[in-house]
Amino acid sequence: MNWAFLQGLISGVNRYSTAFGRVWLSIVFLFRILVFVVAAEKVWGDEQKDFSCNTAQPGCHNVCFDYFFPVSHIRLWALQLIFVTCPSLLVVMHVAYRDERERKHALKFGEGCRTLYKDTGKKRGGLWWTYVMSLLFKIVVDTTFVYLLYYIYEGYDFPVLIKCQQDPCPNTVDCFISRPTEKRIFTIFMMVTSLACILLSFFEVLYLVGKRCKECISSHRSRSSTPRRRQTAIGSGTTLVVNGKYEMESKSHKLPNKDILVPSYNVAMSYSGKG
């Protein structure tokens, strides 16, 4: 296993994750991948070799093992870890796609041109949808595998004694699982970590959706609180639209506030008589 590649991959995913995403990544790496690689494979390494039945009938041992263990826990968990970590790579690839667009845009229009994105790693637009869809995909994958493990093995328990009646067994034979208690503990541990990852992904979806709704409401309120002014020419005046109300502003000069001296009626008549 290439740990350097895995470390670089995890650091890239961690850079564009929220707080919930970082906790989810820590649980997946420490409590699922490391436990799977270091301990779980060794616990299930002897599941078929040490599965014994109290009969020497040829083929009975293999048939009984296939009936009670149709799919190995190790292979199911390996598929689960592969499918649940792939969506995080989509986010990293989307950010890399944005970086490449910025690079080509700068080469085409010059270094001082206007950028396409304020921050290529900021979860806005298509990257926001990619991140949310990756979280939903993780929830579906983990939930599906938890249910599959319960459905295939009819629970998460490992009985000490198994009664097998499959052909070509001559009669009902007793079969015994190797280290059932240890297998039960690791199975429960892996299921608990899977449920914890499901809850973290669900809370992260709620956090992202709630934050986005809050930003949309705040931007809508800021736009509605800002007075809108529009001028349209009507005749000799100008109509101002202020907060939805129409006000008329005349183009003619306004009279000053001071009193204007007007000639009296007698003086005006005397001047007209002289003329």
Automatic annotation (TrEMBL):
Family statement: Belongs to the connexin family.
Start and end residues of each Connexin cysteine-rich domain: 141-208
Residues covered by the Connexin N-terminal domain: 42-75
Pfam name, any one: Connexin
InterPro entries xref list: Connexin, Connexin_CCC, Connexin_CS, Connexin_N, Connexin_N_sf
Annotated signal sequence range: none
Role noted for this protein: One gap junction consists of a cluster of closely packed pairs of transmembrane channels, the connexons, through which materials of low MW diffuse from one cell to a neighboring cell.
Disulfide bond is among the record's keywords: no
Compartments where found: Cell junction, Gap junction; Cell membrane
Subunit structure: A connexon is composed of a hexamer of connexins.
Membrane-spanning segments: 21-40, 77-97, 128-153, 185-209
SMART domains in alphabetical order: CNX (SM00037), Connexin_CCC (SM01089)
Main location (coarse class): other
Keywords: Cell junction, Cell membrane, Gap junction, Membrane, Transmembrane, Transmembrane helix
GO cellular component, one term: plasma membrane
Key word Repressor present: no
Membrane topology of this protein: Multi-pass membrane protein
Protein name, UniProt field: Gap junction protein
